[in-house]
Amino acid sequence: MVKTIWIGDVQSGMYDGQVVELKGWVKRTRGSNKIRFVVLRDSTGTIQCVAKRDVLGDEAFESVKAALIESSIIITGTVNVDERSEGGHELVVSSVEIVGSVNPERPFPITESAMAAADGGETEFLLDNRHLYLRTSRMTTMLKLRSSVFGAIHGYFRNLDFIEYQAPNFVAGAVEGGSTLFEVPYFGRTAYLTQSWQLYAEAAMPALERLYTIAPSFRAEKSRTRRHLTEFWHAEMEVAWASNQEIMTHGEGVVRKIASTLLDERTPELESLGRDLDLVARYADSPYPRMRYDEAVETLQGMGVDVEWGQDLDYSKEKVLTQDFDVPHFLTHYPKIAKPFYHRMDPEDEKYVLCHDLLAPEGYGEIIGGGERTWSEEEILKRLDEEGTPHEAYQFYIDTRSYGGVPHGGFGMGVDRVCSWLTGADHIREVIPFPRDSRRVTP
RNA sequence: GCCGAUUUAGCUUAGCUGGUGGAGCGUGGGACUGUUAAUCCCAAGGUCGAGGGUUCGAGCCCCUCAAUCGGCGCCA
Prior knowledge:
The chain has 443 residues and is α+β, with helices and mostly antiparallel strands. The chain folds into two domains: 7-100, CATH 2.40.50.140; 132-431, Bira Bifunctional Protein, Domain 2 (BirA Bifunctional Protein, domain 2). Helix content is 34%, strand content 27%. It contains 16 helices and 18 strands. The strands form four sheets. Strands 6-10-11-18-17-16-13-12 form an eight-stranded mixed sheet. A hairpin with a 7-residue loop joins strand 4 (72-81) and strand 5.
């Protein structure tokens, strides 16, 4: 049952005039009692197949008529160049085999009306039928774009000799705030699903020096926004002997690499989503400015926004700040009080930490958070105590400082957020096959 | 956790000042030899989210609950 011929290649003209066997699924049918048009779909595209009763005979023609939407089918025929067919090619059918039929009492539920109503967004019905919605052209396109994003991230880091490194997903302690941990029963104890690879990456930093991962992270946030998932894909990196500035250079580098890869590999997909290619090209080609937190606060205050020094910048403030940005911007040097214990204090002014957030334009918000880590044992103990965090769960982390601590840092990137931003999606749910949020774990 | 909204056939929806729910898609049957979400004719398919109240009478008015959607906070 090897498949050797792909519809995308047929549409590109590789098989004109030849007899080919196509394997796929019925996307749509139409026609009369003597001639039927079957639009066949596979992972690479669609093609119109023309079935005529006087060529096929009554029995085969009736089976074509009975093939409902999403039946799987093997069609043999001659590739014909014909302007009347979408894509410029059609298959003149000589034989047909229905592989998996569809029961008329339970037809494929995703209809044109369901798709039109969603209009790029997602109705409850489409979320309930996500396993079937994946087959539609919009989801297929998104999944291809997503694959290229993942490939670009791996490519960026591997080109620079980073080592891909895996951390456990069951953990004992928090990275971010403890309130967003998912508890998991663990043989009579409580474990948590990881919020980040970071702490375990820091343990391997003295071994590998340059390391990265793409892995799921879990946060029990009851957020109902277009930017949040409870399970999201987290691209993280950690580098020894690196400053906040160098780490930002990698953040900018990987994001620009993702944008340029999408233009290289997926221009037709971006166009089919209606994405402005000039915007994506700008994100690939332009440098990303860096702005200190203080400057951002002053800018916001100048715009009449009610913001006090020392508070973290929430989404409503980010949105105002980024509305005039035409490329992503880094925000650096946040006040210590707004950030967790592992951020390194700025030696020039201990009110600040050496950190950065990368804010995407067009209202997509934060896509990267990172910075230098506190690396002296003395300082990390002090920061834990300031936060009132008990040391037990973090003893392994403290040990990494006890034995040859060095300056280092890294960042975490929300891969789904990047996908959402670069594809121009309305909601982060659109770019992941089975989205998880506070109200949905099925299908 | 807070604010706002929605819920009518498998899907998408119309439903007027309260008077026994219409349509399109899909499905089934029929017509049609080049269709582009084909077209035309016919049919089946509804305890109007659940419960209670007002009323001679509730899809519509009132109350409670549920589910869902959007936004905020928190973050990537």
